[in-house]
Amino acid sequence: MKIEFKTDSTLDEQEIEVEIKAAQKSEAVNNLISYLHKFGKKRYDLLPIKVEDCIVTIKRTEIIKVEIQATDITFYTTGNIIKTTGRLYQVLEKLGDSFIQVSKHGIININFLESIEVGFSGNMIALLKNNLKADVSRLYLPALKRELGL
Q1: Model pTM?
Q2: Residues 85, 86, 87, CA angle at the centre, nearest 5°?
């Protein structure tokens, strides 16, 4: 990656213009654009979750995995299991860089990943802290390997 800085006197003092050049739009380009959109926004370690008649907050650093069945979302943390409703892609957007989707119904926190093994059906299984497991589908395996640097 080549990074270059140029001054531009036509811009206001607080204004920054970013130009991204590549041979073609790729996943890396999309990730960079997404990162730049998030840059400078307030980001708290707490994730608010609406459950029944109240809102609870959990620390992002304590979330081990998130699973969905229909519209029921379950957050597995280091100390609790919290259930709510929603969409998995919306949760993934709120979680941040340490989290990666490993199947249509699951997200894991890379920091809690202990190993990846072959399951009975040929799919991979992510073994996580607190004796938790998550299915890793073939579709999401290449992205997980890239995230791990393999």
Answers
A1: 0.71
A2: 145
CA dihedral 134→100→62→32, nearest 10 degrees, is 180
Q: What is the pLDDT of residue 108?
A: 96
Rounded CA-CA distance 76/84 in Å is 12
Question: Six-digit token pair at 22?
Answer: 């590549």
Q: Judge residue 136's burial from the number of C-beta atoms within 10 Å of its C-beta, 0-12 exposed, 13-18 middle, 19 or more buried.
A: buried
C-alpha to C-alpha distance for 43 and 48, rounded to whole angstroms:
12
Q: Using alpha carbons only, give the angle 49, 51, 106 rounded to the nearest 5 degrees.
A: 60
Beta carbons of 124 and 118 less than 8 angstroms apart: yes
Q: How many CB atoms lie within 10 A of CB 100?
A: 21
- For the segment 79-99, what is each residue's pLDDT rounded down to a tens digit? 999 999 999 988 988 887 789
> By three-state DSSP, how is residue 36 classified?
helix
* Rounded-to-5 percentages of helix, strand, coil across the chain: 25, 35, 40
